[in-house]
Specification:
This protein has one domain (2-176): Sandwich (Jelly Rolls), CATH 2.60.120.10. The strands form three sheets. It has a six-stranded antiparallel sheet with strand order 1-2-10-7-12-5, with no helix packed on it. Strands 6, 8, 9, 11, 13 and 14 form a six-stranded mixed sheet that branches. Helix content is 6%, strand content 42%. It has 177 residues and is mainly beta. It contains two helices and 14 strands. The protein starts with a strand and ends in an 8-residue tail after the last helix.
Length: 177
């Protein structure tokens, strides 16, 4: 695996390091030793998947409040998505900054999202599947969210939103939290 830290401290793009032959290729999608060597969390507790019918579906921006904050390792197993994370750590030099990464079934990239980040994505193709492993069990009472178009963050999505849940569309702006 090839780890590239984003401009947001602690958030990494993880590229597949492929071993190819006439059959295709083999790659690891997780290795505890490699994650630990970079000081990353490795205690994965839950795996999640979302299937999205149409291009332009937006999910997010979600997070879990302390002490239930979770690390996510996100990948796209079918279709394509633009994954977005926002740094909500008040003591961070990149507080309120964001990064977007295109994850596709063809590029085999993953995004390592540290605790203290809001996460969301927009699908770039019909029938997109997002899969992610997390380090905490889902705790409904710790669930938080931020409105995707919050002017404090200035997210720029590559395509317009066509489908969004009422819950996500009615999330509060960060300043009201």
């Amino acid at each position: 695996m090839i780890f590239t830290e984003t401009k947001l401290k602690g958030a990494f793009i993880v590229d597949a390091e492929k071993i190819s032959d006439k059959r295709g290729f083999f790659t690891r999608i997780f290795c505890k030793k490699e994650f630990e060597a970079r000081g990353l969390e490795t205690e994965l507790k839950q795996g999640n998947m979302s299937y999205n019918f149409t291009k332009g579906t937006f999910r997010g921006l979600h997070y879990q409040r302390t002490p239930y904050g979770e690390v996510k390792l996100v990948r796209c197993t079918n279709g394509a998505l633009y994954d977005v994370i926002v740094d909500l750590r008040p003591d961070s030099a990149t507080f309120k900054k964001w990064v977007g990464v295109e994850l596709t079934a063809d590029n085999f990239k993953m995004l390592y999202v540290p605790k203290g980040f809001a996460h969301g994505f927009i699908t770039l193709a019909d029938h997109t599947v997002a899969q992610y492993m997390v380090t905490e069990f889902y705790t409904p009472e710790a669930e938080g969210g931020i409105k995707w178009d919050d002017p404090q963050f200035g997210l720029e999505l590559p395509i317009p939103i066509n489908v969004i849940s009422d819950k996500d569309n009615n999330q509060p702006y960060f300043s009201s939290l």
